[in-house]
Amino acid sequence: MTLIDDLIQDNYLKSAEIINAFHKIKRTDFLHPGDEYQAEINAPLSIGYGQTISQPLTVAFMLELLQAKLGDKVLDVGSGSGWTCAILAEIVGEQGKVYGIERILDLKEFAENNISKYNFIDKGIVQLFCSDGYQGLPDLEPFDKIIVAAAAKEIPKQLLKQLKVNGRIVLPVGKQFMSQDIVVIDKVSDKEYKEKRYPGFIFVPLIRK
Length: 209
Hints:
The protein has helices at 3-9, 16-24, 56-66, 83-92, 105-115, 157-161; strands spanning 45-48, 51-53, 73-77, 97-101, 126-129, 143-148, 163-173, 180-187, 193-201. The protein is α/β, with parallel strands linked by helices. It has one domain: Rossmann fold (3-Layer(aba) Sandwich). Strands 5-4-3-6-7-8-9 form a seven-stranded mixed β-sheet. Strands 1-2 form a two-stranded antiparallel ribbon. A hairpin with a 6-residue loop joins strand 7 and strand 8.
C-alpha cells in the first residue's frame, strides 16, 4: 500500500477532490535533492532553516477541515516547500487563487521552483509573498479560506479580519514546541465566529518577520 492508501484507509483522506490532488501533486517534488526517497514517510521532513514539510497525515487532516472548493481564493500562511500551496491550487482550479506567505526568502524561492513544476504560477493560480504571516495579505483580502502551517500563540486577529463572511480558517494554536490545538474557525458575520478545536499536534512556531 502507498502512503495515500494508508491515509484513506485510516480516514484522514476522505474527499474525492483532496484525494485526487494528493495523487496528482507528488510530495517528492517538494523535497531537496537526495531526500526524495523519504517522500512516502508519514512524518515531517526538514527543508532547512529550522522548517519542515509537514507530515502528510497532518496536511490531509487540515485540508479536510478546510474544505477548499473549486474557484475559492485561499491564503496559505507558512508555505514552506510549496506542497500545500500546490495541492490547494489543484483543488481550486484555474477559477481559483492561492496566495502563499513565507517569511524566509530562500524558502519562498524554493517553493516557487517546486510549484513551477506544475505550471500553477505561470497559469496565475498561485502567487507567493515573502512577508509576515501574522499580518496576512490585507491588499488582497477577503479570502474564502485561510490555512496556517505554523503555530501561533494566539489566533491572529488580522487573519480573522481577512476572512470573508462564511469563510473558514484552519490553524494550529498553542505554546511553542508543546502540544497544540488545530483550530477551525468559521466567520458567521463580521463580529461572530464559531470555533472548534482538535488537540494533540506540534508545529514549528509562527514567527513575525
